[in-house]
């Protein structure tokens, strides 16, 4: 620096800077380091930032007053800096020489101001509304200019006149301008032109928040205030950012998964179970040739070595890393920065203790050190919470993407895969396993951060305590295999627990789907015992896991103390000259406290990683299931003129099962009506499934021309209004809609429904009869106007006269679908003469195909089919005639008996037909005129058409949740589940544990004071012994409290699940009719998971934090009573912030 500043301007003067009550930095230091620091930062940050701007163009921002002001002030700053430079040149011409620093610094600062002005304009062209790079630059510039600002004022006071008026004036112009630039940088520019127009009425302000608002989370303040004033509702929440939405996140993960699968399928060993063999051929006897083209005899070849190469499986973890890793790495970088800043405070503490020892030290040392400790803590907090923001967003995206991928996969897996993956497993994958990934990302960085913090802490400890630290390292190394064994055992228990959880959710799903039958037969207790039996096995495994977790907690909670004890004990015993003074003791203790967090978190993160690895394998296995081939059905069909073509088709439900359909040959001309008939179980519905591509195609070709509409045997009804069930997302056309209702015999049903076609339909169509559900499903297909209609026995759920109406008005030659290609599976032989062709199925094969008369003349399988259903046909014809004689069409066209049968979980076709016959015959016997009792009752309650429809109440109510603060009653209920006395005992144990920790710290304080009284040699063994005893007591109390808490949590989990299960079994049927099954299943999966696993760790953290904070305040107040005055306002601020945030979150 002497070359730049000269001999008259020293770079550092200790007496002028440190050892004085009025400190000041030398002029050379101010002109060089303080002036260059912001410039170096901007020039280093500029290349990567320009590259980022080049790759991310958000649009063009019009020149605004704010932007003009920034640009003008930037140019003025350049002029001011170079005015200083030209002034120096002018003085040089007049004979006044200056050191080179007077030329270099204005030149560097001026060029940097030009660069900043260029960045202002370039950011405008790239659509940047708020610049973090420039904000930090201006902030550093103001911060570094504060020292010269004070220094020049002090010099002006000391001297009667200002010696260098030019530089004095230019500096204060410079300081004012950079201050203005810093203020202007806090404001946002207008949105860029040509960017996506945001039509969202309630957008999230995070996307448009400035740099300062983003760093401090100020953009969230309005939501917090709104939540504090009134409980938040769903409509109050901001819309989700597009980059966080499922439409962006899920496809990103699926693309990576498809690439990963393609890599595995293209690898040479991707074929499952591909054998690798080493073959040896015996030499041929003399006289025998081995010409090319001759086949080797099998007996002449021996297999020397054979093994099966395991197929390479796609890695789901690699897909997650590629899709979400880059964003997560930003948070990892912030975590690294925060870890490094963490170790600044112990060094400042060491300096503060040294300051208290020096009697003649200036007072500003203490104030400066205290301010630096506060500033580092503040900076550490800002960086840490930005890191958590990145982690939380990554976790949310992970969970969203995983749920979306699992849901998509569940729709397209093969039937064989559906047998392996039950409904309970799929529910757990989406609720529990996906949640584990979200929970893991919060502290995933601790896997590398904890070892880094441990190594840095040990390095600094070495500086104070020397090789004695190795004793503490040995303790940590000894704990590693202990915790590794616990982690391995925990993983095994985790797999077992998830199997029981899957079984329990599967059983609960079956119970809830058949709850009506279960209640009618009074089977509640039997099924309750089955669920509780599985739950008990699950809790047994959970108990073992909790006990292992308690052991791990005890080991790692005691680890910092054990490290401190062994280190201090070895330090004072290996050498008599080693004295434990307050500086070494408390700086080391602060480093040991830094060690405490990584040592406490590492086992929890390892446990979370173990759980996530189990979930990862489960999800990967599920996503690796075989999918239905989308190319099995040719949708183009350019080879033939027919609408539906099947040539030599051979289909199976699973490749391991025998084929269900053999040698299927089918050609359906456009616009024709084909009836598929046959006995029960002959493969009619399987044929429809094959045409839809839902079966495995072993041989042959299928082609369908045009769009397809499918009407299944069991109608699928949404929980929506009746009109939406029919429209199914298409635009509403009044004329077409009314004609569909009329054709499907739904017009008079609407008069019975309380809200007409605006009536809300319950889950699975619970408030519709079986026939009404079927007709709604048919009306949906008719409204869709597809090219090909696949109708899987839609007439089976309706009475004979309704079937005749539907066939005539919809399916038949003169119906609404005339001109469309229709394939109708039916048992109604009365309609067969009107169809174009009939296909007869027998044992999965096409027995006959032709017109009605042709098949009748052949006297084959079709004739046998007619004879079997002749009686039913006669009865149905009589019933049809009876109804045709009536003047009025029945309002509700379904039989009560048929409704009852359709609501049963499993009823075969023959039984349903039989009950329908009984229903019709009984109706004829009751009333010779053919008018059924139910029709008469419907006519009596038929409303006046002129009367306005009553206000329709919502059938499925929205799920409600408590808002605001958690009530004391909720805590009391959980405490009762744990046990009131046990809860108090757990709190007592935690209080004792922290009391032992306080006692150990107080004892260490007394021990360190022995150095001042020169009694260290006499009390070493006593000091070490008592310190060790207090630590041992703390470890035992930690273990006992962890075991007791685990016992209490397991007991609470058992009681709460049992109470929930008992309540649901005693709930009236009306509740299940108006509550979606998914909502109830969620209580038994996600909520029980929270009670089983998430809540115990939260309670553990709360108790530990609460008693640690309480003990810390007690120690500080006892040593410094004046601190009690500060506690009250601090407590008020913290409580207010907590209430504000909790109100907004909950």
Numbering strands along the chain, what is their spatial order in the largest sheet? 8-9-10-6-11-12
Oligomeric assembly: single chain
The chain-level structural class is alpha/beta
The Cα radius of gyration reads 40 Å
Helix content: 55-70%
Largest sheet: 6 strands, mixed
| General shape | globular
Count of helix runs: 38
Description:
It is a single chain. The chain is an alpha/beta fold and 1146 residues long. Helix content is 65%, strand content 7%. The strands form 3 sheets. It has a 6-stranded mixed sheet, with helices on both faces. A 4-stranded mixed sheet has the order 3-7-4-5, covered by helices on one side. A hairpin with an 8-residue loop joins β4 and β5 (661-668). α4 packs antiparallel against α7, α9 crosses α38 (1123-1145) and α23 packs across α25. The protein starts with a helix and ends with a helix. The model is unreliable at 270-308 and 878-952 (pLDDT under 50).
Supply database-style keywords:
four-stranded mixed beta sheet; six-stranded mixed beta sheet; 12 strands; 38 helices; 65% helix; 1146 residues
Annotate the secondary structure layout:
Layout: H1 2-5, H2 14-17, H3 27-55, H4 65-93, H5 101-125, H6 132-158, H7 165-184, H8 211-216, H9 221-229, H10 246-266, E1 274-281, E2 301-309, H11 316-342, H12 344-357, H13 363-412, H14 415-420, H15 423-443, H16 446-465, H17 469-513, H18 515-520, H19 524-574, H20 582-623, E3 633-634, E4 644-652, E5 661-668, E6 673-678, H21 684-692, E7 696-704, E8 708-711, H22 722-727, H23 734-743, H24 747-752, H25 770-784, E9 788-792, H26 800-811, E10 821-825, E11 837-842, E12 845-850, H27 852-858, H28 861-868, H29 870-885, H30 896-903, H31 909-926, H32 933-940, H33 968-978, H34 980-1013, H35 1016-1065, H36 1069-1074, H37 1077-1119, H38 1123-1145
Parallel strand pairs: 3-7, 6-10, 6-11, 8-9, 9-10
Antiparallel strand pairs: 1-2, 4-5, 4-7, 11-12
């Amino acid at each position: 620096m002497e070359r730049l500043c000269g001999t008259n301007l020293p770079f550092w003067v200790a007496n002028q800077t440190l050892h004085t009550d009025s400190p000041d930095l030398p002029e050379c230091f101010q002109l060089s380091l303080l002036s260059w620091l912001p410039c170096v930062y901007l020039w280093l940050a500029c290349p990567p930032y320009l590259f980022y701007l080049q790759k991310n163009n958000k649009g063009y921002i019009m020149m605004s007053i704010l932007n003009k002001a920034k640009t003008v002030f930037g140019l003025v700053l350049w002029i001011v800096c170079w005015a200083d430079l030209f002034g120096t040149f002018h003085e040089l011409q007049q004979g006044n020489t200056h050191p080179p620093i007077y030329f270099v610094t204005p030149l560097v600062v001026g060029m940097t101001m030009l660069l900043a002005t260029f960045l202002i304009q370039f950011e405008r062209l790239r659509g940047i509304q708020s610049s973090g790079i420039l904000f930090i630059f201006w902030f550093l510039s103001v911060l570094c200019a504060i020292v010269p600002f004070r220094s020049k004022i002090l010099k002006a006071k000391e001297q009667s006149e200002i010696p260098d008026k030019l530089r004095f004036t230019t500096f204060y112009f410079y300081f004012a301008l950079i201050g203005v630039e810093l203020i202007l940088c806090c404001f946002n520019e207008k949105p860029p032109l040509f960017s996506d127009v945001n039509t969202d009425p309630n957008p999230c302000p995070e996307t448009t928040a400035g740099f300062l608002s983003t760093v401090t989370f100020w953009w969230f303040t309005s939501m917090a205030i709104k939540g504090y004033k009134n409980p938040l509702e769903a409509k109050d929440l901001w819309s989700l950012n597009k980059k966080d939405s499922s439409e962006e996140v899920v496809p990103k993960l699926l693309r990576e998964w498809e690439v990963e699968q393609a890599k595995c399928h293209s690898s040479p060993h991707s074929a499952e179970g591909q054998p690798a063999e080493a073959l040896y051929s015996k030499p041929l006897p003399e006289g025998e040739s081995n010409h090319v083209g001759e086949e080797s005899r099998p007996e002449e070849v021996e297999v020397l070595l054979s093994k099966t190469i395991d197929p390479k499986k796609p890695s789901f973890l690699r897909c997650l890393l590629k899709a979400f890793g880059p964003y997560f790495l930003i948070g990892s970088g912030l975590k690294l920065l925060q870890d490094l800043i963490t170790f600044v405070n112990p060094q400042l503490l060491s300096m503060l203790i040294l300051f208290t020892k020096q009697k003649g030290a200036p007072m500003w040392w203490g104030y400066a050190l205290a301010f630096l400790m506060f500033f580092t803590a503040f900076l550490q907090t800002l960086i840490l919470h930005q890191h958590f923001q990145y982690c939380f967003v990554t976790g949310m995206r992970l969970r969203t993407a995983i749920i979306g991928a699992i849901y998509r996969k569940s729709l397209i897996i093969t039937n064989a895969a559906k047998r392996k993956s039950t409904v309970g497993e799929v529910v757990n994958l989406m609720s529990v396993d996906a949640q584990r990934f979200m929970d893991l990302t919060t502290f995933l960085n601790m896997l590398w951060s904890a070892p880094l913090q441990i190594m840095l802490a040990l390095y600094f400890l070495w500086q104070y305590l020397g090789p004695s630290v190795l004793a503490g390292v040995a303790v940590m190394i000894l704990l590693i295999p202990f915790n590794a064994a616990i982690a391995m055992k925990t993983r095994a228990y985790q797999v077992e627990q998830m199997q029981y959880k899957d079984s329990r959710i599967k059983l609960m799903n079956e119970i809830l789907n058949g709850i009506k039958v279960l209640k009618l037969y009074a089977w509640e207790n039997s099924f309750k015992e089955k669920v509780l039996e599985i739950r008990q096995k699950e809790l047994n495994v959970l108990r073992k896991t909790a006990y292992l977790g308690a052991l791990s907690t005890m080991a790692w909670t005691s680890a910092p103390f054990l490290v401190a004890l062994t280190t201090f004990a070895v330090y004072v015993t290996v050498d008599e000259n080693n004295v434990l003074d307050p500086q070494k003791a408390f700086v080391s203790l602060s480093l040991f406290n830094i060690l405490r967090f990584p040592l406490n978190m590492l086992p929890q993160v390892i446990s979370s990683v173990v759980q996530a690895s189990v979930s990862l394998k489960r999800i990967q296995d599920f996503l690796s299931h075989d999918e239905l081939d989308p190319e099995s059905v040719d949708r183009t069909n350019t080879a033939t003129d027919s609408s539906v073509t099947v040539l030599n088709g051979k289909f199976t439900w699973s490749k391991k099962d025998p084929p269900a359909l053999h040698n299927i040959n089918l050609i359906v001309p456009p616009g024709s009506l084909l009836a598929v008939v046959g006995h029960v179980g002959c493969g009619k519905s399987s044929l429809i499934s094959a045409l839809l591509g839902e079966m495995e195609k072993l041989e042959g070709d299928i082609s369908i021309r045009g769009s397809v509409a499918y009407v299944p045997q069991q109608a699928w009804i949404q929980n929506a209004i009746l009109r939406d069930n029919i429209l199914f997302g298409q635009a509403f056309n009044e004329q077409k809609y009314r004609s569909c209702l009329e054709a499907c015999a739904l017009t008079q049903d609407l008069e019975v429904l309380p809200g007409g076609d605006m009536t809300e339909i319950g889950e699975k169509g619970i408030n519709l009869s079986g026939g009404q559900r079927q007709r709604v499903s048919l009306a949906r297909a008719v409204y869709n106007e597809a090219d090909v209609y696949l109708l899987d026995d839609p007439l089976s759920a309706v009475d004979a006269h309704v079937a005749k109406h539907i066939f005539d008005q919809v399916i038949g030659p003169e119906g609404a679908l005339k001109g469309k290609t229709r394939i109708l599976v039916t048992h109604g032989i009365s309609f067969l003469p009107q169809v174009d062709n009939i296909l007869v199925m027998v044992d999965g094969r096409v027995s006959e195909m032709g017109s009605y008369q042709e098949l009748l003349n052949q006297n084959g399988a079709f004739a046998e089919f007619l004879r079997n259903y002749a009686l039913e046909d006669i009865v149905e014809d009589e019933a049809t005639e009876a109804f045709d004689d009536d003047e009025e069409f029945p309002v509700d066209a379904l039989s009560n008996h048929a409704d009852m049968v359709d609501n049963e979980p499993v009823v075969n076709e023959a039984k349903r037909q039989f009950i329908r016959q009984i229903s019709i015959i009984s109706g004829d016997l009751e009333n010779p005129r053919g008018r059924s009792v139910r029709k008469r009752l419907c006519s009596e309650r038929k409303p006046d058409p002129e009367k306005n429809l009553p206000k329709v109440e919502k059938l499925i109510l929205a799920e409600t949740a408590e808002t605001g603060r958690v009530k004391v009653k909720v805590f009391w209920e959980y405490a009762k589940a744990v046990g009131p006395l046990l809860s108090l005992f757990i709190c007592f144990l935690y209080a004792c544990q922290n009391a032992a920790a306080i006692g150990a710290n107080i004892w260490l304080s007394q021990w360190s004071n022995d150095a001042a009284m020169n009694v260290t040699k006499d009390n070493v063994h006593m000091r070490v012994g008592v310190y060790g005893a207090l630590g041992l007591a703390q470890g035992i109390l930690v273990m006992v409290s962890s075991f007791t808490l685990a016992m209490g949590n397991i007991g609470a989990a058992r009681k709460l699940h049992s109470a929930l299960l008992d309540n649901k079994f005693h709930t009236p049927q009306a509740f299940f009719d108006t509550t979606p099954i998914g909502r109830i299943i969620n209580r038994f999966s996600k909520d029980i998971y929270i009670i089983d696993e998430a809540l115990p760790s939260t309670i553990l953290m709360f108790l530990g934090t609460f008693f640690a904070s309480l003990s810390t305040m007690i120690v500080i107040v006892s040593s410094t009573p004046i601190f009690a005055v500060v506690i009250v306002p601090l407590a008020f601020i913290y409580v207010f912030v907590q209430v504000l945030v909790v109100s907004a979150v909950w």
